[in-house]
Amino acid sequence: MLVTFAVTVVIVGCLFSYRVYAILPSRGRNRNLTKRSPDSTCSLAVFLGSGGHTSEALAMLSGINAQRYKPRQYFVSEGDSLSVKKVQVLERSFEDGSPNSPAYRVVTIPRARRVHQPLWTTPLTAMVSLCSCIYYMTIEPLANHNSGEKKFPDVLVLNGPGTCLMLCIAAYFNKFFGLPAPTIIYVESFARVKALSLSGKLIRPLVDRFIVQWPELVRRHPGSECYGTVV
Amino acid sequence: MRAFVTVGSTKFDALIQKVFSQEVLEALQKQGYTEVIVQCGNSSFEEQRGAADGEHPVIVQRGGLVVEYWKFKPTLEEEYERADLVISHAGSGTILDVLRMGKPLIVVPNPTLLHNHQQELADVLAEQNYIKSSSVDDLSTTIEEFGGSTLLNRFPRFDGTRFAKILDETMGFA
Q: Model confidence over B89-127: pLDDT tens digits?
C-alpha cells in the first residue's frame, strides 16, 4: 500500500516536473515567433504595481499601437486608486473619437504581500492573490470562451513588484493545462543598474522576454536584453 | 534664481537639515539664488513645525534668501519647471522627470536606505555626466562647484517607440 503510494507520488512528481520543464520558455535564437498580419489585434494585460512601477509601465504602454493591442486589461492591487486614475489619463490619449465601448478594463487583485507584512504570513496572502489571478487569467476567459468576449490575453506585461509573480504563475496554470496562455514580457526598473530586483530574480526563468534598462545587467544575466531606457 | 529641493514621498532628515544649514544657504546665495523651495515630505528637521501641504507653505527669511517649505503637492512638475536648479533624493522617477525637463540636477542618495540601489543609479548617471551626485556632507561644495551650470549632458528624450518595437517583435508584427 505504502509502496504503491510512494511510486504514485514519484510518477506524478516526475510528470509534473516534465510538464513544467516542457512549458518553460526557450529564449534567444530558438524563440518561436508566430507571424501576425499587420491588421490583426492582440489582447494585452499589464500589471501596475503602484508608485514607480505604475509610472514605468504606463510610460512603456504610451507608445504602443492602441488599435492593435486591444482589448487591454489593467491589473492593479487593492487600494491603489492612483494607478486607476493614471490608467484613465492614458486611455484618454488612446481615444480616437469613435463611439465604441471602452477597449479596456481595470481589474483589482489582492496584494501578494503588503508593505511591512511579516514574512510568515506571506504564503497565505500570496495564495489568496494567486487564486484571484487564476480567476481572471483562466476561469473567467474559459467561462466566456464561446461567447467571444473577454478572451485570454495574448501578451502579459510585467515590471514588478511581488504581486506580478502571481499573474505569471497564473499564466503558467494555463500553459500547464494546454489552455491559451499569454506571452510574458518582464521589464526591470530603470532604477536597477547593477543588480536585479527580487521579483526580477524570481521571474527571470519564467518569462519569454526579460528586458533590462542598463547594459551591465545583460553582462551579469545572460538571456536578458537591453535596448536602453524604455520608460 | 530659484532652487527646488525634493525628497519625494520618502523622508530624508539629513538632506533637509543640511539644506537649512548656514553653509548650504550661503553657497546657494553665492551662486545667485534668491529663493529656495523645499518639498520636505515626512522628514524631521528643526523647522518642521507648521509644515503642511503645498497649498499652505511656510515662508521664512534666512540670510538673504527666501525659504519656502511644505510637505507634499499632487504634482511637482510645475516646481521643476520654475526651478533653475533641482536638488533631489535618488528616486528614479524624480530623476527621470527632472532630467527630461533639461533642468540641472544634484542628486543626493540616502545612505540610510538598506539595499542601496539608489546609489548605483546616481553613480552611473553621474559617470555619464547627466547629473551631479553628492553626499549630504559635500552638498555645499557641490553647489559651489556646480552652480547650476549647463555643462551636463542633455538626457535623451522619452522614446515611446522602443517598447512598442519590443512588443511588436514579440507578438510577430515586426
A: 999 999 999 999 999 999 999 988 766 788 999 999 999
Q: Does residue A26 lie in a domain region? A: no
Q: Is the ipTM of this complex over 0.90?
A: yes
CATH superfamily of B2-170: Glycogen Phosphorylase B; (3.40.50.2000)
Cα A196 to Cα A199: distance, rounded to the nearest angstrom: 8
Q: What is the DSSP letter of B154?
A: P
For the segment B54-70, the average pLDDT, to the nearest whole number, is 91
The closest of A72, A90, A84 to A109, measured between CA atoms, is: A84
Taking CB atoms and an 8 Å cutoff, what residues of chain A touch B91?
Answer: 52, 191
Query: Which ranges in B20-137 belong to alpha helices (H)?
Result: 22-30, 77-82, 92-100, 117-127
What are the DSSP calls for A38-83, one per residue?
TT--EEEEEEE-SHHHHHHHHHHHTTS-TTTEEEEEEEEETT-HHH
Q: At what angle do helices B92-100 and A51-61 cross, to 10 degrees?
A: 40
In this predicted structure, what is the pLDDT of residue A29? 46
Number of domains in chain A: 1
Cβ contact (<8 Å) for B117 and A190?
A: no
How far does B62 lie from chain A, in Å, by closest CA? 34
Q: Which domain holds residue A139?
A: 41-189
